[in-house]
């Protein structure tokens, strides 16, 4: 059988995936998606990847929007990769002197990687926290410009295409240190930050895998095996932090100092298998309040619930 295709964002969070493949025989092709979760949604639906490791809010927004359109998204939530929240840094151009704080961003233009991506969804969570959605009930709190990549977003705030964008703090920090962009705020996700999804073809139908007459597990064998190998990659990551720092600072776009600082802030799952339905419910509720989602069934988003 062909190796599974796993889509991931080529940032520091991907290190345990690399270790799972290098040290524990994860039978998969690791396919990078630098423009993030929104791009992986499309890739899953186009049969370009089998599993995606991406941002909680991006997956749940896509699943909810598919429900609203009365379509099947083609994938379900099957795993919890990172337990800690994500710190989204809010950035503008280095010489944008008129933009000094989050309060200056109301009614401005936000750059996002894609519509429906984490950077898009979190801009609306920010607007909700700032009270801009109430004040702008008749329209959007800002205009939105999709620019695909982190590089394009950095260029966009400097050439005036957009006024601000949001990206993970440590990935942004190197460019603050260089003086290329300016940090004007931050926002944390109110949920655990990274989840794993799998195409429906890797799941057994719920009526086969749930209830007292269940005849199959929820996950097909190759998906179960991949998640177990990723668990081993995470354990290796936690027990071999110097190897992790070397990988992050030589193969990815981070300084050694920033890699060490990030390690103090991140907590990966001890067992990636399954998601907490309460986390899904909380995320849906906040995205509904922020105007990203309408009515949604959290249960239908989940392919594997965490053991109670």
From TrEMBL:
Q: Where in the cell is it found?
A: Periplasm
Q: Which UniProt keywords apply?
A: Signal
Q: Which residues form the Ca3427-like PBP domain?
A: 88-187
Pfam family of the protein (one): PBP2_Ca3427_like
Task: Please give the superkingdom of this protein's source.
Answer: Eukaryota
List the record's Gene Ontology CC terms alphabetically: periplasmic space
Q: Please name the CDD domains in this protein's record.
A: PBP2_Ca3427_like
Similarity remark: Belongs to the bacterial solute-binding protein SsuA/TauA family.
Q: What is this protein called?
A: Periplasmic binding protein-like II
């Amino acid at each position: 059988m062909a190796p599974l295709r796993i889509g991931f964002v080529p940032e520091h969070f991907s290190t345990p995936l690399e270790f799972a493949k290098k040290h524990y025989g994860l039978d998969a092709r690791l396919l990078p998606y630098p423009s993030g979760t929104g791009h992986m949604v499309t890739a899953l639906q186009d049969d370009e990847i089998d599993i995606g490791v991406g941002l909680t809010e991006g997956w749940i927004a896509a699943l909810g929007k598919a429900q609203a359109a009365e379509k099947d998204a083609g994938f379900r939530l099957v795993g919890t990769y990172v337990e800690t929240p994500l710190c989204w840094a809010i950035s503008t151009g280095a010489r944008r002197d008129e933009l000094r704080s989050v309060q200056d961003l109301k009614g401005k233009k936000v750059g996002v990687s894609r519509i429906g991506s984490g950077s898009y969804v979190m801009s609306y969570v920010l607007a909700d926290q700032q009270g801009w959605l109430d004040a702008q009930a008749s329209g959007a709190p800002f205009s939105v410009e999709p620019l695909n990549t982190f590089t394009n977003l950095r260029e966009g705030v400097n050439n005036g295409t957009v006024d601000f964008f949001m990206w993970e703090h440590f990935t942004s920090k190197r460019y603050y240190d260089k003086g290329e962009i300016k940090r004007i705020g931050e926002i944390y996700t109110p949920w655990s930050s990274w989840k794993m999804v799998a195409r429906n073809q890797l799941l057994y139908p719920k009526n086969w895998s749930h209830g007292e007459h269940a005849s199959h597990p929820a996950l097909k064998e190759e998906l179960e095996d991949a998640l177990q190998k990723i668990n081993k990659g995470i354990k290796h990551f936690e027990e071999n932090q110097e190897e992790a720092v070397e990988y992050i600072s030589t193969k990815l776009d981070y300084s050694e100092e920033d890699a060490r600082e990030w390690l103090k802030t991140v907590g990966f799952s001890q067992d990636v298998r399954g998601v907490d339905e309460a986390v899904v419910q909380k995320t849906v509720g906040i995205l509904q309040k922020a105007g990203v989602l309408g009515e949604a069934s959290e249960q239908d988003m989940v392919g594997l619930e965490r053991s109670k």
